[in-house]
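Quick one, probably user error.
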């Protein structure tokens, strides 16, 4: 099953249109479980119940996009440690119930939908449900109203009550792999948008120049690197030192991807990263680093 991070996000449609009432989405840490649950909810609440993707124009779709669809709710664990307690299923009294901002499941599903064709409840990290909540939830899964749909998510399938697993349609959600940026696999997970991708590509060009240039250019390369890091800091709302630290992390990742045989460059970059976090004067640290990097492309074995 593809996720909302992929091009074929709405191949979830066959499952959504199957008539099943309860789904359990499972995957590893980093898998887009919440996004997939949201995509399924969007299909269920669209007025066009035969569509393979929501129309985004009907009243429930518009309400969903505005964040005000009364026929769908999302429940997440709360507290420290975060758990799902009885308050998510039944009306109970106590501090946890007072802090719960949603509507208990049974009360929410007691009435028919007001705007959308279906009423949807998404419960994330269902493996964090305590025993009483899990058992109470099981009864709702076994006897659901015909207008209801329930989506559970978990990164620990084996920790979910076996009877809940057996009564849900279980779907694996794969972690979305991001394409490498400028030949650096790790950068594919960093860029949030096209502008950040282009910014990382500029860093690739600067680092390529740095390992190929003469020693006389190392100070200028260090200056350009600081300028790049400052622009990154502004994009991400970081402190000046954290902006440099992030840029040095990207530099180390570039080194591993582009010049894996250059152990000296990698070690120098990691050392510079530690010094920056240790509040050593950044100008001096970067000048020494780019002196180390200068001309190393020609010195690498072919």
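Nope, works fine. Designed sequence:
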């Amino acid at each position: 099953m593809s996720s909302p991070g992929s091009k074929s996000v709405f191949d979830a449609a066959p499952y959504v249109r199957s008539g099943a009432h309860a789904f359990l989405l499972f995957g590893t840490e980093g898998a887009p479980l919440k996004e997939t649950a949201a995509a399924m909810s969007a299909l269920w609440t669209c007025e066009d119940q035969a569509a393979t993707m929501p129309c985004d124009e009907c009243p429930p779709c518009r309400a969903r996009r505005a964040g005000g669809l009364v026929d769908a709710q999302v429940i997440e664990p709360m507290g420290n440690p975060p758990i799902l307690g009885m308050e998510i299923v039944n009306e109970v009294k106590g501090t946890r119930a007072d802090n719960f901002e949603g509507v208990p499941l049974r009360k929410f599903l007691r009435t028919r939908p007001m705007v959308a064709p279906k009423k949807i409840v998404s419960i994330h990290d269902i493996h964090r449900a305590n025993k009483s909540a899990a058992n109470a939830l099981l009864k709702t899964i076994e006897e659901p109203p015909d207008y209801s749909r329930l989506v559970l998510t978990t990164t620990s399938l084996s920790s979910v009550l076996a009877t809940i697993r057996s009564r849900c349609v279980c779907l694996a959600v794969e972690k979305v792999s991001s394409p490498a940026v400028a030949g650096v696999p790790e950068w594919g997970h960093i860029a949030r948008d096209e502008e950040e991708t282009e910014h990382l590509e500029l860093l690739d060009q600067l680092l390529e120049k740095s390992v190929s240039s003469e020693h006389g250019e190392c100070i200028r390369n260090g200056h350009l690197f600081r300028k790049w890091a400052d622009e990154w800091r502004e994009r991400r709302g970081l402190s000046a030192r954290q902006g440099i630290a992030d840029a040095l992390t990207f530099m180390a990742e570039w080194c591993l991807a582009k010049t894996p045989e250059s152990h000296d460059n990698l070690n120098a970059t990691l050392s510079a990263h530690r010094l920056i976090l240790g509040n050593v004067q950044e100008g001096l640290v970067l000048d020494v680093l780019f002196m180390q990097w200068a001309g190393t492309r020609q010195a690498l074995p072919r």
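The two ends are 44 Å apart (CA to CA).
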